[in-house]
Amino acid sequence: MSTPKKLAAMSLFTLLVLIVVGGMTHHGDASGLATGTKADFLAASGSSGVPVSQVGVNALATESGHQRVAINFTWLLITGYLVLFMQAGFALLTAGLTRAKNAGHMFMMNFAAFVIALIAYFAIGFAFHFGGVAPVANLGGVTHLNSLHPGGFWGLIGLKGFFLQTGGTYDVGVLALFLFEVVFMETAGYIIIGAIAERISFAGFIAAELLMGGILYPIFGNWVWGGGFLAHLGQTLHLGHGAVDFAGSGVVHGVGGFSALALAMILGPRLGKFNRDGTPNAIPGHNLGYVVTGTFILLFGWMGFNPGSTLGATDLRISVVAVNTLLASCFGAAAAMAWTNAKWGKPDISMACNGMLAGLVAITAPCAFVAPWAACVIGLVAGFLVCGGVWFFDHKAHVDDPCGAISVHGLCGLWGILAVGLFADGTYGAGWNGVDGAVKGLFYGNAGQLGAQVVDAAVVMAWAFGVTYLVFSFVKRFVKIRVDEEVELSGLDMPEFGAVCYPEFVLTPTSGGTHAGVSAPSYVPSGLPAGPPSADGSDESSSLERP
How many CA atoms lie within 13 A of 373 on its CB side? Predict the structure, then answer.
């Protein structure tokens, strides 16, 4: 018998054996209907039976409550892990949008941000943020987080949970909340990297991350998510349900974006970014593959970022949140592709990615409160907004933002805050922030909610920009926050960290140019006289050549 015939015969014989075995084998609980019954409760409780009494009812209720919280813990932790993975996306995105000679510098900043900001948040930030948030029913109450000062509707800061130890906060519910919230804080810490890239010193960067993790992010977060005064604008000023920000368009992205703006202004532009007449020189990053891959990783992580903000899988609104998140991201990307194609005759890859991120940022606040059609509109507006924002900061404000972080996170974060006040349709949020009824925006009859969102937007801009600018105006007197010109020209990898990201290549300038007396290479893509509004580098470019 030939080999093919042997294989066919063996395959047929194996199939017949499987059919016979399948018919003879008795199934277990294949449907799942018999698993998780009274017997499991009795085994777990050590009881021989369930008394038909209040005691028995209480025992069953306790077990049911325990399982409910366990389900929510599992959901919260898994979605927290997804958000944690976003840090890899930020690293690829920001490295790809900047130049090859600074790739190691970019990866190290992303790595160090996670470490330094987490330590600051663990030590003091979490307590400032959630030290007075109790109760949180989905997580069993976290009753020890009960110290908000001043009390009432005017809370400014929490004071329990320092080092996850004080005030009884060594607690399973508190630690589950910490894991989820610390990765949100890390996101704000990563946002600033895109705007300060290729010129900030490592010492200056460490100072920025300590500020973000310990003070800037957690205190504003307390005002919106920790029971602070913005959350209670509904009670104090009768503005809807107070500031409503489901997953952080303002708390995370607005804080990161406007802190980034202040840092970029204090640092000044990179050498050669602007000509003497103020016109910008546009240069793409060195690796579009990193950019696209990083964007997809961020999209994947956002599926934990937004749905996880229910703080529990027992809130079935998670399906609406997830679908709205996807819709807004795609409409944002489509808008950016359309805008760049209309302006230059072809879609810009990096700007398309920023358009997707813009849609994600904008939907983050309203994702639980709006219908799918509204999510599409919110994402579409964000995609156009980020394109206009990058152009504005380049051509009008003359702020050097290599990755477009200010526009993506700052401007689109503001749009997301305001979108709640416009599109919230009253199908979710009953009792939100202690106000009766569901959350409704202007288009559904509640102008007060839009008023609360406007106040929220104004406060996040003033707080994030103002505090960062004041602190670093002081810090720069004692810490060198910008590298020397020769370091900036040669690349920060070796001077700052003693190694380069691409050691098998040498970096050579592609063409010459000058800026402020310093020789700097220059490159502008052919056919794009002023450069597209994509997140890009300055007129100092390097190409990779074999040594």
Answer: 2
